[in-house]
Design brief:
The chain is mostly beta strands and 563 residues long. The chain contains two helices and 29 strands.
Length: 563
């Protein structure tokens, strides 16, 4: 795609299983450290059709900051994860209890390279910009403008009057102010490296209790439990001066500006109860659960921006049944569930969000289906209906040319309508022979908006038709398979003016396990995989008015030893 980059990842994990008295214990811990170079979405079908195999990021550093904002090596995410839990399973009389405590810490940085420095301090006319002094760090405040070119003394320069810029990309060009050809000789370009730094910590405890009993001779199962979590996300944004924007993307370690610093404590409690009874002619289930969620923002620079909201749910009801039919192996099933999504801490990031206008998101799910199962053959068909309400979206009151690195566009979060979706899912799993099986599935989906602006329009990114056909073969130590997925047309926008083509992607795998390789090696497994066998060009994930190019053909060889 242009620009070779190397992603790195170090990972380690371990598990211990033990039994102490009548308690089964499981302990687990994992550590993960990764650095990944991201890739860019394409903005609209016109860009994709022009260059379906390029995301717009460049492989060479040009020394022109406006063009180097899409230099691939500066689009980096770094993250480090530590996660562990201790699980205990035991009995209290007739009640089976499963409980665990856990801890998770995730910290990292997302990096991009804006094509300017931010003017945060008014240094007065004729004085050099203090932001250029690496010994100073400015905490908080707002942008008073942008700095593109300076002289050796550190004073801002203006482009030559009447100069027409020759820069046409990316994002349509930026005018004379960002074009080095529009400045007198000796002008020095400046730029920044913007870091979004975060540290997330959460610990929690949960317990699930199961009591099997009988009522009037009918088997009855009562379930109940809770989940509690204390979570905090700390984040700040630091801006670092590029040491020499004309020659290299390297940046100074000391930031010239910490744009913001804030903490988001979140406390969650969920508790539930459920009863399932086997009447003989059907298994019937009825349950209820409730969430209590408190979300807070603590601004480390401006306490006046502190926010908090209680995001509690109503009592959420769920119900279901499974009933056998006269034909052996055939049964009918159905279910209803009320779901809830609390207001996320990201909603509190914007200081101008009026939380009195924001409610938690809710959804009601209904499904009804038939399934048939005999040795070597399984089939099912399900109708579903989902009503999603109070969808939380960000509404911007301003537009910004290019990337809004400063997130300066005013706006806030509101509940903006919802989505109604219904459809049918069908699948068949059949053993053609003792060694060869086939799996086929098909989904017919109709998802539309219910808000006033786009009522009746198809939800962006949702395909009306999806299908999978997969063949899997096993014989002794040899295994292989070939699968094909079809995804129908999808829209890139809520107004339904840009529609992607459908696409078909196929994957192939083959592998073999060898045993008795010596005293030190118990077995060796060799597997070869090809994803997107026919190198199909397609848009994968869809975002608003944009999409990410689907991965091309990828081949991988894996070797696994059991010692």
């Amino acid at each position: 795609m242009g620009g070779s980059v190397t992603n790195s990842r170090d990972h380690a994990e371990g598990k211990i299983i033990s039994r102490i008295g009548e308690v089964d214990l499981t302990g687990y811990i994992s550590y993960d450290d990764a650095q990944e170079y991201t890739y860019q979405r394409v903005y609209g079908l016109a860009q994709y059709e022009q260059t379906p195999d390029w995301d717009g990021l460049t492989k060479d550093f040009s020394g022109v900051p406006y063009q180097d904002q899409v230099f691939r090596e500066t689009w980096i995410t770094e993250r480090e994860n530590l996660f562990g839990y201790l699980k205990a399973d035991f009995k209290l009389g007739d009640v089976a209890v499963s409980s665990n405590v856990y801890y998770h810490e995730n910290k990292g940085t997302g990096k991009w390279m804006p094509y300017y420095m931010v003017d945060v301090i008014d240094d007065g006319a004729g004085n050099p910009h203090s932001e250029l002094d690496n010994s100073n760090t400015i905490y908080g405040g707002a942008s008073q403008g942008t700095i593109y070119f300076v002289n050796k003394a550190g004073d801002s320069l203006s482009p030559i009057d009447g100069c027409a810029s020759s820069i046409g990309a990316p994002y349509g060009g930026g005018g004379a102010a960002v074009d080095p050809g529009c400045y007198e000789q000796g002008a020095m370009p400046v730029s920044s490296n913007r870091h979004s730094n975060y540290n997330k910590k959460r610990y929690g405890v949960n317990a699930d209790l199961i009591w099997n009993t009988t009522i009037a001779g009918m088997d009855n199962t009562v379930r109940g439990g809770f989940w509690y979590e204390d979570y905090q996300r700390d984040e700040n944004r630091s801006w670092h001066k590029t040491i020499d924007a004309a020659t290299s993307p390297r940046y100074e370690s000391n930031p010239y500006w910490i744009q913001y610093s804030r903490e988001f404590p979140v406390e969650t409690l969920m508790y539930y109860v459920e009863d399932e009874i086997d009447t003989g002619f059907a298994k019937v289930r009825l349950g209820a659960k409730k969430f209590n969620v408190d979300v807070t923002k603590e601004d480390q620079f401006t306490p006046a921006n502190d926010l908090s909201v209680s995001s509690d749910s109503d009592v959420l009801i769920s119900a279901g049944f499974v009933a056998p039919l006269p034909l052996r192996g055939l049964e009918v099933f159905g279910g209803y569930a009320e779901n809830f999504a609390a207001i996320k801490d990201a909603v509190l990031e914007r200081d101008d969000t009026d939380l009195s206008l924001v409610e938690p998101e809710t959804a009601d799910n209904i499904d009804l289906g038939l399934r048939y199962s005999t040795p070597g053959f399984n089939a099912s068909i399900t109708y579903y209906d989902i009503k999603f309400e109070n969808r939380i979206t960000f509404v911007s009151n301003e537009s910004v040319n290019g990337i809004d690195f400063l997130e300066a566009a005013a706006g806030g979060y509101v509940n903006d309508g919802g989505i109604e979706s219904n459809g049918i899912e069908a699948s068949i799993d059949y053993n053609l022979t003792d060694n060869l099986g086939i799996y086929v599935s098909y989904t017919k989906n109709d998802a539309t908006y219910t808000d006033k602006d786009f009522r009746g329009n198809t939800v962006l990114g949702s395909a009306e038709d999806m299908a999978v056909v997969s063949f899997d073969y096993t014989k002794g130590d040899l295994y292989a398979g070939f699968s094909t997925k079809y995804v129908g047309e999808r829209y890139l926008d809520q107004a339904n003016t840009q529609e992607t083509d459908s696409y078909i992607v196929s994957d192939l795998y083959i592998g073999k396990t060898a045993y008795d390789l010596g005293e030190a090696i118990e077995s060796m497994e060799l597997s070869f995989t090809i994803n997107n066998v026919f190198d199909e060009e397609y848009l994968g994930t869809i975002a608003s008015n944009a999409g990410w190019i689907g991965a091309p053909r990828i081949a991988a060889l894996n070797v696994k030893f059991v010692m």
